[in-house]
Amino acid sequence: MTADTERELVDRLRADNVALVAGSMTDLAGVTRAKYVPVHRLGAFVRSGMGVSPSWSVFCVDSGIAFTPDIGVVGDQRLRIDPADLHLIGDGIAWAPARLGDQNGDAAPLCARSLLGAAESALAGHGLTALVGAELECTMLTEDGGHVTAEPWSPYGIRTSLHHAAFLTDLAADADRAGLAFEQLHTEYGHDQLEMSLPPAAPVAAADAVILARIVIGRTAARHGMKISFSPVPFFGEAGNGAHLHLSLADEQGPLFSGGHGPHGIRPAGESAIAGVLDTLPDLLGVYAGSVLSGTRLQPGNWAGAARCWGLENREAAVRFVAATPGNPHGANVELKIIDPSANPYLAMLAFLGSALRGIDRKLPLPDEVAEDPAGTVEALPADQDTVLDIFERSTVAAELLTPAVIDALVAVRRYEQRTFGSRPLTDAIAALRLAWSC
Predict the structure, then answer these.
(1) Angstrom distance (rounded) from CA 73 to CA 186
(2) Rounded CA gap, 364 and 269, in Å?
(3) Are the CB atoms for 151 and 265 separated by under 8 Å?
(4) CB atoms inside a 10 Å sphere around CB 201
(5) What residues does the GS catalytic domain cover (predicted)?
(6) What is the DSSP letter of 68?
(7) pLDDT at 376
(8) Please, what sign has the CA dihedral across residues 208, 347, 304, 246?
(9) Domain-wise residue ranges, the chain
(10) What is the pLDDT of residue 230?
(11) What is the model's pLDDT at position 126?
């Protein structure tokens, strides 16, 4: 960025009443953390970055720190932003996703955004392109953390959605101002639950959009006297929140999930991609749904994908296949349903992409499709988080796809959660973490 370009951008931001520029990273606990500079220091944020302790990567949901043998009190890293990624999020603030690096500008080992970028480049080296679309489920709360509406909830109901019409229309306007595209918005099954669907994008851009969407939803809600919970289980005994990801892959011949002779038109490489995702599910569950609350959501009957199988439009399968039909304008894709909002979206996408590519490289055969409710007939994914973390920590596949450094740090963070909240009554843990993953 030249000096003239920097001055022009600062002038434009000031014209938009921007006083502060924020840069954020999402840590291994799935919490997004930020630093701010006055708008005139934008250039410093871009070039030298803002200093942060290496412990930022292992901060925990309750502000504890899960120190590891490699991460202690010594050292410094930098958050650097790209001015092309700036978005206006209101209240005089422009935001950009940051990369975590060292003093020289090289990516830090635990920078999830950089790791996802490297995976995106690796796909290109295999002659593949990927698009990822995200679904964000969240729960609207009062200022004191309770339910916003006291009357009976009607899932997807016109009454329940129009009750929040002022919030929803402001949310659409705020998203537009922030440069956040979304495809649909609706009240969901759970009491006071809301879902926003984001359009498919390249992996890093898709993960950035997830964080931007969480920020915009939270800021708009605040102006309406509400808070937003992105907890996997915001209230005991009620519907949980998912963070489903949809993946499509293509090579020079076209999409991998359509145009072939396999089930529902899947091409051989597409079959192997799905097989790769299924093959690695137990190993990677610590990334997708590794928080102390995740296992409570990941149960049969919750439409959370608790069964290790795939099927056409099967909402109880971990991998739901969406075929290329006139009702699906984006083309065929696979949805990974087990992901919840406590996951770092960059790492979740990294694991999803990496497992699909691993299946392609190994030409794994596609298991038989499950065309009915898999409860009781298909292997259920483990819901005990100690077991989930044990599998994850020992997994050579997870180390291959995510790096040993990520494994060690993520396990430290999640085991801290287990020690701190796992022995509490579940109702207490749910209440304590209701806002842990909110932006």
Answers:
(1) 45
(2) 9
(3) no
(4) 17
(5) 112-439
(6) B
(7) 84
(8) positive
(9) 3-110, 118-432
(10) 98
(11) 93
**Topology alike, domains 3-110 and 118-432:** no
Residue 123 DSSP SS3 = helix
What's the token pair of residue 285? 């569950």
- What's 339's DSSP letter? -
149: alpha, beta or left? (left if phi > 0; alpha if psi -120 to 50): beta
Query: 304 burial class (0-12, 13-18, 19+ CB within 10 angstroms)?
Result: buried
pLDDT, position 2: 79
Contact between 390 and 396 under an 8 Å Cβ cutoff? The reply is no
Of the CATH numbers 3.40.1280.10, 3.10.20.70, 1.10.3210.10, 3.30.470.20, which one belongs to the domain with range 3-110? 3.10.20.70
State the distance between the two ends of the chain, measured CA to CA, in whole angstroms. 29
Give the pair of three-digit tokens for residue 55.
Answer: 């412990």
pLDDT of residue 379: 87
Enter the DSSP assignment of 131: E
Report residue 298 as tokens: 């990941």
Rounded-to-integer distance, Cα 288 and Cα 305, Å: 12
Instruction: With beta carbons less than 8 A apart as the criterion, state whether 276 and 283 touch.
Output: no
Distance CA(221)–CA(94), nearest Å, equals 18
- Number of residues that make up the chain: 439
Nearest Cα to 289, choosing from 366, 183, 387? 387
Count CB neighbours of 101 within 10 A: 17
Q: Are strands 20-26 and 93-101 parallel, antiparallel or unpaired?
A: parallel
Beta-carbon contacts of 156 under 8 Å, excluding residues fewer than 6 positions away, are: 186, 187, 188, 189
In the prediction, which pLDDT does 49 show? 96
Report the distance separating Cα 13 and Cα 30, nearest Å: 29
CB 351 within 8 A of CB 247: no
User: What was the pLDDT predicted at 153?
Assistant: 93
User: 318 and 281 in contact (C-beta within 8 Å)?
Assistant: yes
DSSP E strands, 258-405: 307-312, 317-322, 333-336
Question: What stretch of H or E contains 136?
Answer: strand 129-141
Q: Check residue 358 and give its pLDDT.
A: 97
Position 41 scores a pLDDT of 96
pLDDT of residue 4: 74
**What would the CATH number be for the domain defined by 118-432?**
3.30.590.10
* pLDDT value at residue 109: 96
Neighbours of 180 (CB within 10 A): 21
Q: Which regions in the chain score pLDDT beneath 50? A: none
Report the distance separating Cα 310 and Cα 367, nearest Å.
8
The confidence score (pLDDT) of residue 306 equals 94
